[in-house]
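Ticket #4471: structure output looks truncated?

Reporter: J.K.
Steps to reproduce: submitted the chain below (215 residues) through the standard prediction queue, then opened the result file.
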Amino acid sequence: MPTPGFPPNTLDPEGTPIWISELATGDPNHILHVVRGIDPVEALEALDAKPGLIQPCVLPDNKPDEWTSLPCAALGIKPGTSAALLAGRIGEWTFVYDDSGFTHDDEATKALSADGRTAATSVYTINGDASLTFAVDGEQVEWINIDDLVLEEELPGMPAELRAAFDAAGTIEMDDLDPGEADGSILMRAACALAGLACTLSDVRRVPLLVVPFG
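Returned output as attached by the reporter:
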């Protein structure tokens, strides 16, 4: 599959959406949550962020070093002391980017999708493990592990909206992968495609952003 849902200059060389790789540390252990139908404050609160710590965010121009994410730098916190959650809304979808993977919880996507909403969570760990959870109306509908993902087998059984997101995500050719085999960044691309986040960091900077320390 090609990557029809991602315009030129919106993916890095590894196939990760470039706005995410430009937010992340050099060796990321991060999570992207997307949810349709609630605003960024509500999404952060659904993930158990403390309301009193949520603040408007202007991202710095650059990271101070390879171990500090841009949201972490915006908060002025030391890497490793807590996660930094960055939230914003583009169109109908709200995103929450967790720079340290602290919101990795089986119930998180269900909570975001409560009351008839649709949500997805893409996890990518420092060890290269990756998964995607898709939930509707408070119930998990799909859980996909990159190690078990065979696109030809999984795509036909997916809900139409999620299947369309994977079609848009496509696959990236890698020397160690067979043609059409799922690459390590496909789940992050699928979450972005689902939420219409085939964009650049400049696009993200143009929307009102919130940031909060977590954990």
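Triage note (M.O.): checked the attachment and the full token line is present. The mean pLDDT is 94.
Status: closed, working as intended.
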